[in-house]
Design a protein that fits this description.
The structure holds two protein chains of two kinds. By secondary structure, chain A is mainly α. Chain A has eight helices and no strands. In chain A, helix 1 packs parallel to helix 8. Chain A starts with a helix and ends in a 7-residue tail after the last helix. Chain B has one domain: MetI-like fold, CATH 1.10.3720. Chain B starts with 13 loop residues before the first helix and ends with a helix. In chain B, about 40% of the residues are buried. The chains are: A mainly alpha, B mainly alpha. Chains A and B meet through helix 2, helix 3, helix 6, helix 7 and helix 8 of A and helix 3, helix 6 and helix 8 of B.
């Protein structure tokens, strides 16, 4: 283990670190938006769109991110749709993550007791009011544990971006290994870099899970 | 359509080669699961014991595999296994089996521990009241009930392993994706849209394997809630 090698590589890794953070953040934000919309469409069984949402969730969840990225990056340009590697990465993460987040939200929404929804209807609420005032506030709190697990999962999935040459953390390490053959050093930095992101984050999410338990109704 | 991209699949032995790649993918996933589930079951059972050192050690093992992305695990195995064990002719596929197997073991140990702990206390106490020893209690009371409880999570883990095999091409294993890329490159000039069809077929392969499994897991989980 040569510490000088590690020290010299740190500026490169810092760039990769930032990119991993930025791609994860945008991908997760997009995935949360897609997830909430898709799960509401399914929850209220909106005609056509609800079914389409269901199909989307199954397709995205049952295929690997790597193939989804290859499609975006290599196959779509043939059809005239060309995106930069980073854009493909974010689209891919939103596509995959949206489905996982939708499942998380659906789990939470289904946890809201039926009497709550029926009471809302009895008060004359329409679909939108039911979603806004009854299902969302309680369902969101219930879905936090699943969403937290997805956040961690999606950050780890950004390592797959290295296959379409996005210079995030894993790609940076592989490039450096290819150039200088110091696999031990660079792999150590890589593992530590992921630990720096994921350990504090998972502690924070565990705290959040405990915090939102107060928001659940009735038990 | 003489040059429609879909024909790339029927050119020469392309489809057979793709299926051969799929077979590589399947046996690596299967071996990793066998290795991981056996080791994970053992570790999970050990994690229910009260020994603090053992519990901490196994917890750290789990957290390591939770934090490090699978791509990185694969490269760790690829670079470190030959160095640690002084072998340099181990093929990438075996490295992958080791990396995936250890990862599955970590994840499964948590599933097993959760299932063992969620067997109701009165079951355990009834067993003890009948004069069962610890082994009998484990074998006849805890294990059969835990197996049933953990089945949906285990099937979901299997679908994750199958999806993760897509990463094999990163350590140059001749899996279905790697062979797909070769076919695309070899036919690039004659079939410009071939890339779409080859990746399309691989996409469908993965979906066809994983979708029934996840539906099965969903159905089992729904039955258990009732």
């Amino acid at each position: 283990m040569d510490w000088a090698v590690i020290q010299q590589s740190l500026p490169e890794f810092a760039k990769g670190f930032q990119l991993t953070l930025w791609l994860s953040a945008s991908g997760i934000a997009g995935a949360l938006v897609v997830g909430v919309v898709v799960s509401l469409l399914r929850y209220f069984q909106v005609p056509v769109l609800g079914r389409l949402s269901g199909a989307y969730v199954e397709v995205a969840r049952n295929t690997p991110l790597l193939i989804q990225l290859f499609f975006l990056y290599y196959a779509f340009p043939v059809l005239g749709l060309k995106f930069s590697a980073a854009t493909c990465g974010i689209i891919g993460l939103v596509f995959l993550g949206g489905a996982y987040m939708a499942e998380g939200f659906t789990g939470g929404f289904n946890g809201v007791s039926q009497t709550q929804v029926e009471s809302g209807r009895a008060l004359g609420m329409n679909q939108w009011q039911l979603a806004r005032y009854v299902v969302l506030p309680q369902g969101l709190a219930l879905s936090v544990p699943a969403l937290a697990a997805n956040v961690i999962f999606l950050i780890k999935e950004t390592s797959i971006f290295s296959v379409i040459a996005i210079p995030e953390l894993t790609n940076t390490a592989l490039d450096l290994i290819g150039l200088y053959y110091r696999s031990n050093e660079y792999l150590l930095v890589l593992v530590v870099a992921y630990a720096i992101i994921l350990i504090p984050l998972s502690l924070l999410l565990t705290w959040l899970e405990r915090r939102v338990r107060y928001a659940t109704f009735g038990d | 359509m003489p040059h429609s991209g879909i024909n790339v699949l029927f050119e020469g032995h392309n489809l057979v080669r793709l299926l051969g790649g799929l077979w590589t993918t399947v046996w690596i996933a299967a071996l990793a699961l066998v290795l991981g589930l056996s080791l994970g079951a053992l570790l999970g059972a050990l994690r229910t014991l009260k020994n603090p050192v053992l519990r901490l050690g196994l917890r750290l093992y789990l957290e390591f595999f939770r934090i490090v992305p699978t791509v990185v695990l694969l490269f760790l195995a690829y670079y470190l296994v030959p160095e640690l064990f002084h072998v340099d002719s181990l093929p990438g596929s075996w490295m992958a089996v080791i990396a995936f197997g250890l990862w599955v073991a970590a994840e499964f140990s948590d599933i097993v521990r959760g299932a063992l702990l969620s067997v109701p206390v009165h079951q355990r106490e009834s067993g003890l009241a009948l004069g069962m020893n610890r082994w009998q209690l484990f074998r006849y009371v805890l294990l059969p009930q835990a197996l049933k409880l953990e089945l949906p999570a285990t099937i979901n883990l299997a679908t994750r392993v199958i999806k993760t095999t897509s990463l094999l091409m990163l350590i140059s294993v001749m899996d279905v994706i790697n062979i797909g890329q070769q076919i695309i490159e070899a036919n690039n000039t004659t079939y410009r849209t071939g890339v779409f069809w080859v990746y399309g077929v691989i996409f469908i392969f993965y979906f066809v394997v994983d979708y029934p499994l996840s539906r099965w897991a969903q159905r089992l989980a729904a039955q258990q809630k009732v």
